[in-house]
Amino acid sequence: MEALLQTLVNGLVAGSLLAVPALGFSAIFAVLRFPNFAIGALATAGAYGAWLANVGLGAPIPVAVAIGFVVAGLAGVAVEFAALDRLGRAGHLMKAIGSLAVGMVLENVIRFAFGNDLKAFDLPLARDIVFGPVRIGPQQLASVGFALAAMAAFWAFLSLTSLGRSMRAVADNPNLARLKGVDPTVVALVTVFLGAGLCGVGGTLIGLDASLDPLTGGRILLSVFAAAVVGGLGSIPGAVVGAFLIGITEEMSSLALAPAYRLAVSFAVIFLVLSFRPAGLLGRAVR
Amino acid sequence: MLTYILFALVIGSIYALLAQSLMLSWGLAGLVNLGLAGFFAIGAYASAMATTWHHAPIPAGLAIAIIVGGAVGLLVCISTLKLRDDYLAIVTLGFAEVVRVVASNEVWLTGGTDGIPGVPVMVPRDLGLGFHAGTLAVVVVAVALVYGLQRRLLAAPWGRTLRAIREDQTVASVAGKSTVRFKAEAFCIASAIAALAGALYGHYTSYVAPDQFQPLVTIYIFLAVTAGGNTRPAGAVIGAYALVAFLEATRFLADLVPGLAPVQAASLREIIVGLGLLLVLSVRPNGILPERSQKAPAR
C-alpha cells in the first residue's frame, strides 16, 4: 500500500514534468498540422542552455528554467524557418521526416559541443520531505511548481490574449482564420516559439530531476507522443490529461516490469489508443 | 583495400534492399515507415535464432525472416491505416524503439545486449576475399529478385491502384478499391523485404546485437531513397549505393578535421548525414530518377 502511494506520487511528478513538452508538441501539431519529431532534441537544447546559465554563469534555477525556454524556443523557430517551412510545400509528411533529420542534427551538435558525459545542475543537497509514508525531494516539488506555472501561463496566453485566440482559431479552422484576417505566418512563428520553448522547459525540468546528456530529450519522445495521443493529438487540455495518465502508468508499470520497459509501456498505450479510440480522450474525431 | 570495397558493396546491397522496402511503402503507398530499423532487426534476429540455435539451414532462416517480418508489419500498420498518415509514422518510430528495448532486455529470447554470436555465414569465411565476393553475389541476387518483383508489382494493376490511393484515397475508394487492404498489403510486403535485408546482414556479419539497429539506419535509408527517387525501384537501388559511398566519404572527411575527439568525429558525421537529408528533401524531393507517369501538374 505504501509502495503504491509512493508510486502514485512519483507518477504525478513524472506526469507534470511530461505535461509541459506534451503541451508544446500538441500546440505545434494543432496549428502546423505535423508531428514534430525534433521536440526531443529541442528539449535537450533548452536543457543545455539552462545548464550553461546555471553552472557557467551562476544563474539561479528559476532564471535557468526561463533561459531553457528561450533557447529551445529560438532553436525551434530557427529550424522551422531555415529547414522545415520549405518542406511543408510537399506536404505534412515531408515535414515530419525533415523534423526527424533536424532532431538528429541538433542532438549531434549538442554531442559535438558537450560530449556524451552526464552533466548535473548546481543544486544544493537537500533532505527529502516526508509526508507520512511518502517522500518527495524539494527539487521535485519545485519542478512540479515550475511545470504548473508554465502550463498556467500557456493557458492564460491562449485564453486571454488576442494572439492566443488567433492560435486557437487557426487550429480550429485555418481557412476561416485566414478569411478573418489572421496572419498564418505570425501564428506559426509564435506557436513554434512557445511550443519549442515548452519542450525546453520540460527538458530542463527532467535534467534537474536527474542529469543531462545529449539523449535526455530523445528518451522522453515516446512518452510525449503517448501523452498527446491519449489526450487526442492536437488537443491542448488532452495533452495535460494524457501526460498525467502516462506518467502514472509508467511509474505503476515499474512496480512489475524492468525500468527499461517504460518506453514499451508508452508504445503499448499509443498502439491501443489508436486501435480502439483514435481520437483520444479529448480529441476531435479523426479521419 | 579490395576487401574494404567488397565490404562496402555488400553493405550497399543490403541498404538497397532496405531502400526498396521504403520505396514500396513510402514512395508508392505513401506510408511513412520510421521504424525500418525495427523490421531490419526483426529479420536479423529471426534468421539468426533459427539458424544458430535451432540449426535450421540458411534458406529456411531467410524464409522465416520474411514471414515473421511480413506478419509483424501487418500487425504494426493495421491499427493506423484508417487514420491520417502521421499516425503510422509515430507508431512505427515507437515500434523500432520497442524492438531494441526487447532485444536488449530479454536475455532468454535474444541474448540481450551481448547479442547472438556465431551466426552461420553463407560462404565459408576461410575463403578470405572469396567470402566477401561470394556473399556479395548472394546479396546482389536478392536485390535483383526484389527488383524484379517490384517492377512486376508496379506494372500490375496492383501498383496502379496503390499510386491512385496515394494520390487520392477518396477517388480510389469511390472506384471501389479497398484502400485499407491495398495499403496493408504494401506495408506487409515492404516489411518482409526489410526483414530479408536484416537476415542477410546477420549471415554476413555472423553477429546480431541490438546496437546494430539504431534509428540512424532508418535515416540513412530515407536519405538513400529520397536521393535516388522514392517511386522507382532503380532509383532506390542507385540511391543506396550512392549513400554508402557518401557515408564512407564522410568517414574520411571527419578524419581530415584535426584535433577531433572520436565522439566529435562521430557526431560530425551524423550532422552531415542529417543536413544531407534535409538538403535533398528540399532541393530534389523527386530524386535522381523521378516518377514516370501522367501525373497532374504539381500543385
Automatic annotation (TrEMBL), chain A:
One of its GO terms (cellular component) is plasma membrane. It is a multi-pass membrane protein. The keyword Transport applies. One of its GO terms (biological process) is amino acid transport. It is found in: Cell membrane. Its main location: membrane. InterPro entries: ABC_transp_permease, BCAA_transport_permease. Keywords: Amino-acid transport, Cell membrane, Membrane, Transmembrane, Transmembrane helix, Transport. GO terms for molecular function: transmembrane transporter activity. The chain crosses the membrane at residues 12-32, 39-57, 63-84, 96-114, 141-164, 185-208, 220-248, 260-279. It comes from the Bacteria. CDD domains: TM_PBP1_LivH_like (cd06582). Belongs to the binding-protein-dependent transport system permease family. LivHM subfamily. This is Branched-chain amino acid ABC transporter permease. It comes from Methylobacterium terricola. The lineage of its organism: Bacteria, Pseudomonadati, Pseudomonadota, Alphaproteobacteria, Hyphomicrobiales.
Automatic annotation (TrEMBL), chain B:
Coiled coil: none annotated. It is a multi-pass membrane protein. GO terms for cellular component: plasma membrane. GO terms for molecular function: branched-chain amino acid transmembrane transporter activity. This is Branched-chain amino acid ABC transporter permease. It comes from the Bacteria. The keyword Transcription does not apply.
